[in-house]
Design the sequence.
């Protein structure tokens, strides 16, 4: 689309220059022919005291001055209109540009949106570091939503008491947080061992949360059965 517009602009500029040159050529030829005719019809066949030649020359001089004034006026008007355009960023509306330009902008925007949508991967799957956040919301309904740059250690701080510690005093959440931070900020890719540590920590966290969720379900069933028995008595 853009090369087509560029070609149109080039053809338009060349046509304008050719039109100006052809018009100037014929005007100059007509001026020369009229002056020569004025000289031939004069009694003394000279430009001296030749009123017709003076009138013809003055007419063409006035035509030249008016043509230059018209071109200069148009150039100044375009320059002033361009200066009135705001230099700050703002959203263009339909009334800010011609209808054809606005329609072209709409078409290009729609085309860009379609290309971006069709370029999104749909069937691909990449194994990640696990998603224990879903189970955390089941165990703790008011658990805050995961923010993109949040530390896992801070995000899952509410379930930290549920996790067991190893001999170093670290929970699976500490290892999971370390693996996530390494994948986010390291200048190299995680090694296979580091990846395995992160996956194992994620699975341990999910296992603990799943056990808590099942215990909550069993506790709810026990409470309901006890309540039913009391109601029957």
Sequence:
């Amino acid at each position: 689309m853009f090369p087509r517009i560029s070609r149109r602009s080039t053809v338009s500029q060349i046509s304008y220059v050719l039109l100006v040159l052809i018009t100037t050529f014929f005007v100059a030829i007509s001026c020369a022919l009229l002056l020569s005719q004025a000289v031939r019809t004069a009694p003394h066949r000279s430009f001296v005291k030749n009123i017709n030649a003076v009138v013809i020359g003055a007419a063409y001089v006035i035509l030249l001055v008016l043509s230059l004034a018209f071109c200069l006026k148009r150039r100044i008007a375009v320059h002033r209109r361009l200066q009135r355009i705001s230099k700050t960023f703002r959203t263009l509306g339909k009334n800010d540009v011609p209808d054809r330009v606005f329609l072209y902008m709409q078409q290009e925007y729609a085309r860009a949106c379609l290309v971006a949508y069709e370029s999104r991967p749909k069937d691909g799957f990449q194994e990640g570091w696990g998603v224990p956040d879903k189970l955390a919301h089941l165990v703790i309904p008011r658990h805050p939503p995961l923010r993109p740059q949040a530390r896992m250690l801070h995000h899952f701080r509410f379930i930290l008491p549920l996790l067991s510690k190893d001999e170093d005093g670290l929970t699976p959440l500490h290892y999971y947080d370390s693996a996530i931070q390494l994948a986010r900020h390291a200048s190299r890719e995680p090694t296979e061992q580091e990846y395995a540590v992160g996956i194992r920590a994620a699975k341990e966290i999910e296992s603990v949360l799943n056990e808590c969720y099942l215990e909550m379900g069993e506790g709810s069933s026990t409470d309901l059965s006890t309540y039913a028995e009391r109601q029957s008595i």
Summary: Residues 81 and 87 are 13 Å apart (CA to CA).
